[in-house]
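User: My collaborator and I are trying to settle a disagreement about how two of our proteins should look. Neither of us wants to argue from intuition anymore, so we agreed to look at predicted structures for both before our next call. Could you fold the first one, then the second, and keep them clearly separated?

Assistant: That sounds like a sensible way to settle it. I'll keep them separate. The first protein:
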Amino acid sequence: MLIDGTDYKIASSTEEIKKAYELVYENYIEKEFCKLNIHKMRIFLFDSLSSTRTFIAKEGDNVLATVTLVFDSSIGLPAEGIFKDRLDQLRNKGENICEISKLSTQRDLGVKSLKILNILFRSCWLYAKHINPHSLFCIMVEPQNENFYLKSFFFEKNTELRIDPKANEASSILLEMPLDLKEKASLNLNNKRNLKRYRFHFEDPTINKIMEFQKMTEENILKINLSLKEPRSNATLALTGQEKKFLEFKFFIIQYNLNQISKMALSHSSKGWHREATESYENLMKTLPTWAFRKEKDEIYEKLGDMFFLLGEYKKTFEMGGKMKNSSVQRTSIIGRNLQGLAQYFLTGKKPALEILDKSEKLAHDSEDNIVLYKCLHIKAMIHNHLGEYEVALEYIKASITACEKVMPFNESTWLYTTAYGINEHLGKIKSCKEIINLFLKNISIPETDLDLKNRINFYTCMARYYSISLQHIKSLPAYETILYQLIKRDESPLNYSVHLSNYAKSLLAIGDLKKSYQVIQEALDFKDHIPLNSQISYLITKYEIALFMDYKEDEQLIQKIITEKLKGLNETTKENKQIYAGYQLSFLQIQISSLQLKGNSKESTNLLKNFVETSSITRPQLSGNMDQTTALLLLNKTAKAKKMIHKNLTSLETEIIQSDINNQPLISIYENLVKQSYDCLIENIKSIFENDIDQNQLISKVLILMNIFLILQQQNLKKEISNYTTVKEELRHLFSQLIVHKDIPAIKKFLHTIQ
């Protein structure tokens, strides 16, 4: 409607709304409230809603000013980000809220802009009171503009100033105004300003005409919205050419928001902010038409399913899988089944999960779709790996890789090889781990700097873990440092960053750099909001071991208490977590035994050793597990059982472990000497393994081996006096002294003084 040569209206054509968005963009870029984009328009998620209205003031084709009116919905309001608490208070009081947003004017309007803004605000007020009836206006304003809104309109201030991180940390105030304001506007009409405001809102002759124009425009917009809701040909045909063009632009807005929100959600996900990512996706889904963007919706359902899984919300993961399962696109349907199978495992266990995945695998085979097949097989591998069924998991991950190789190059599937590496590591298949490293080296032929970031991280992860498992911790450090300080940004991927920090700390611990190790593991624990409970326990166990060697008694006691509480919490959750609990409980028990041994508390350490022998598993084909058992039995003076254990090692242990980069034979020879109580060659074998077979800097490994050998000798001498006990003991003292002469390991120095 024309008022003094300016046309005030609800934008109802493509050109009008584009120019309004361009004006907002121009203003926001100047204030750094938004980022540059190729469209040069400021579009936000609320523009996709059918209820949102953009009001403009224009002269000819030139848009002078604009304001957007957003009505409360399932995705909230623009002010939700920093004023959610206040908005919730108003909702709880029964208020139906709408928000004035994206207010912008041309910079050269001068005082004319005040009149234009007054009329635009009144247009919004009339619409929100009569066309789409609500009860309360709100608006976020900068502090310097607060008085203008309080004096020119009927706004009130009920909240303090806050910082808006989405608007370049700008200061914002939330103002509120009831839409039923006649009673309030009638107060103190003797005041000229109050009388002017009252007449402007209730007695101006243009009000009825504005209402008529708004109703006419609303009918056209509702017709367009009907075409958005349903793909009805008759509804679409009823549109004029201009209206069809506007409908196309509405689709552009929705597509734009889909792309932008997807990027933002992906960014949140990569930072470990899965909760924020799921909220972004869920809000986006609420704005999409029910019948359109089906492919994009399926992709979002899959991403939501993955993120709900990472958040431990398995029912929602199952729900997202169900939405995909119902798709008419077979690949999408199978991926949905895969998601449901993964979720079902954590909801009800292995059997029902594998029933779903078996059907999924058959459908994938029948359709000869290797993409969904390798994903299905990978999930099966994950389930069996999680249950400790490593041999079965290995077969599935091999099959998954075989299917993947048919459709995807190595550089796009390195995460599968990283999973395979982890399973082989669990099995102690060091040779197989090295083969995976060689695959990385063989297939990564392009310069390292040109390699995809995730693939580089996967490569260095496998490399670092390989050096760690083969007791070459010095070589693992550069790989971890490359990941932490060149590839992963702590603020973009806190979950992954913390995992690598933890592994880095373990390698530092192994070489005896205790102070740095303690700092690094504490840094990893600082990310506790982003890491699951079982990972927190793993990090704490590492910190507990470092505190033990550093002789941080208070820290050691506090950490021990925290670990005990967290282990209890883990044990009280799902059946599958009990498997994880048993592993952590065993590691925790071993460190507690070492703590008591270092402090000379033989009675309590003996009790824990008995517990260790009874509870620890010796079924895994790992040399370390069997050697731990042998050590415990020798410390308990159970020589006969230790002899059987060492004999079992020599006959049933996988040959690839013996033939790997770790030459375990000298270590086995040491234990054979202890079992047979043959001490003549003992010191020579110890020197041999320290000088040649364990990396020169594997300090903690050497210290623990020496400590256990000394304690075993001590027990054997008490039972039956050893003729050359004094000589052997002095040799051990000398080796201890050589090990720690340049290292600050207080607990070991104290232990050394106890060797008499």
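The second protein, kept apart from the first:
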Amino acid sequence: MAHPGFFQRQAHARRNTGLLVFLFLSAVILITLAVCLVGYLVTRSETSSLPFHHWLLSSHGLITAGVVVGLIGTGSLVRWADLADGGERVARMVGARLIDPDTRDPDERKLRNIVEEMAIASGVPVPQLYVMDQEAGINAFVAGYTPGEAVMVVTHGALAQLTRDELQGVVGHEFSHILNGDMRINVRLIALLAGILMIGQIGGFLVRASFHRGSRSNRDNRAQAGLGAVGLALLVIGYVGVFFGRLIQAAVSRQRELLADASSVQFTRNPEGIGGALFKIGLHGGYLESTSHASDMNHMCFGEATRMTFSALLASHPPIEERIQKIQPGLLARLRSRLRDTHPSAELSPSVTAQPQATRLGDIARQVYEPVRAASMSPIARAAPVPARSLSQQVGTVSQDSERYATRFLEQLPATFRTLLYTRAGAVQLCYALLIGHLPREEQKAQLALLPEHPVLGPQPELLAKLLPTLASLGEGVRFPALELAMPALRKLDPEERRTLIANVRRLAAADQKISLFELALTSFLARHLERQAGQAVPVRYRAYKPALPAIRKLLSLMAKAGSRTQDEANTLYREAISGFMTWREEEAPGVEKVTMRQLQEALTALNRLSPLLKPAVIDACAHCVSHDGQVEPREYELMRLIADQLDCPMPPL
């Protein structure tokens, strides 16, 4: 049974891109007409007294319109290309500082612990963490194109003023944006707005130029005045562009913020956490004062990032009072009551009267996370004669079990082991330890001798000696969560070091002349998240299964072999799994195909280009292969994690 919370909202986020393009084109048309009107008034005497609609079709009108569209398009394309690197570029744009994975600051460590718990519970790599040191307001945002390459940015005010529960509520809200696909449209909206706002920026430049430009004659004065008038007109039109930009932000953002609040309650099961954070924003504010990009980022932030007029129309977030009331009716009154003894009543804003009929955020959460019924079941759930436990239903969710698992996992890690994962050298040695941990000591030394010497990337026996015992004592289930904890440190490697690490890992994996499923999963995971194109968006190419059927057959052939003990069992399992995607005559019953590791990589790359609504069936079919016997072994789960990761589908621990 497909899970609507993740896959349907991923598809909805992609459809929102179409809405965004429509609104953008509408704004471009209106701005172009406004600029053409200015051009018409300036050149009217030179083109006789043509009506405006005739002037638009004249050479003057067409050139003016072409220049305006070209400027807007150029501005958007330049910013689009500038943001191609995803979340890290956005963080640098606002002047945020990367939090070192092994930071000693208590507030930063508190944030890292919360984010690690949420990442392990939801099955995504730990995001890169940044802090805006100069911002005293309470705010946060996430940016990136895929869940596996997200970055999270928080203000210093959020770290200093929020309790752990409140900060956890904010992190849960931001993780919802990661899992729902909101980040992609948020980053693209920045690029589109840059083009819309360019006309106003040009107008401001012309106005300033007219004041600073020296003049020597009356003719020069007239030219200077004309330049200033045109600049002033463009500046006014620029404010119209700002209006439309704000309107676009509001159109795509408000409902998503309520859904993210709902998800935070779902993730943390603590409505007072996110409610308290929102209440403190109402008291102390969340505006970004030190960056010139506050208006660009407004739709991405946890709360409003900039002051604005007509906030009821143009605000990208619902009012604080409304958000708190929808979390839980009466919560606002309780929060105000707790602060009444320490704050004057006049300061206890926001203040509204509780609405008994207000929609509970839990109701929204149930609508978001309630599984769809049989009508929207995936093909494998409908067609397979052996019922499969649907793992796709768990993709993109955080359950109480996964939260407890994440907490227990972090608690049982020795302090030295965990600290090493936050350093570049320790994270690199973890990758090597995961590959050689099962070997006898002499074979470990022999394989490590294959690696070239390097201060960071070369084998370091003293660090391996601290990692290997913990990996052995905690068992196979610790491998992927530990690797996710190490990802922020691995991302600190420069591009050349990343390439060398991936080459070293592949050299160790191939040392015994064969590749195990875990070795495949590890090398694929590192390549997926550390190679140059890691942070870039993956466009949809397939909107039906038929064009992607060769890739599906390769993948399910491997999964059927992994989940069976005999060739006959593998063929039967394969036919059950593939039956949701194709039909055949009895005498032409398909069997498993031979699959090389290269073919598997190519198949996963192709399947990542499926429409989000088509991916649940692939996840379900793979799940049927590994769970048909009623249990999922660690190696089978790691294979499922590999597939889910390559398809950009965050899978929590089972």
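Some points you might bring to the call about the second protein. Residues 350-389 have pLDDT under 50 and may be disordered. Residues 400-530 form one domain.
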